[in-house]
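Same chain as my last thread, 239 residues:
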Amino acid sequence: MWRPMQAYLAGLIGSLPERPRAILLVSGHWEEQEVTVHVGTGQPLMYDYFGFPPHTYELQWPAPGAPDVARRAGALVAAAGFPVREEATRGWDHGVFIPMMVAAPGADIPLAQMSLRKDLDPATHIAIGRALAQLRDEGVLIIGSGMSFHNLRARGPQVTPVADQWDAALTAAVTDPDPVARVERVARWEELPHARFAHPEAEHLLPLMVALGAGGEGRAVCDYRDHVLGWTVSGYRFG
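reply #2:
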């Protein structure tokens, strides 16, 4: 079931025009009152999941942290008018190391993690992403790590027709060729069909908002779509 997603992630770095010097990742598993950047090494990893096989609590992804990128990101966000904090001890949650173990198995690209804000306001997170856009010209890959559908209580084939409708509406908004309309439509995501069924809580959708903002006026495409657990899940690329 997970093989297509694995293949998508495994091909991510190689599909880029050039290899990034570092990665800035926003995970759906880290929320703070204010935007917070992790300026430490990212270790030890946070096994913030429950009930999985023992070996999943022994996984390792010993990539170096990127405190310089974290502080640069924080400075850009602060310059845009948003309060920013730094911390150095939290480590990386599974929204970081699980996908990155597949995307960069050599653990040889420095990575900085940035939090969501607890308000989970779409327009705010798009604006935060817009503030980060300059990092792309500095060789930094910006990744939003979440899930386009995330309702843990709704699983199975009976969910798929509804999930398909939500995914089609979300994808149409995210890939709108007019960048102004794109921002407006995605910021109003709760108006899309089955929005709160797909996301009873919004934290797994907000990393997409940051990535979209960082994408600016560049082209937005859906470059991955599949079904897992009966859910329809998509991946997007900007610029």
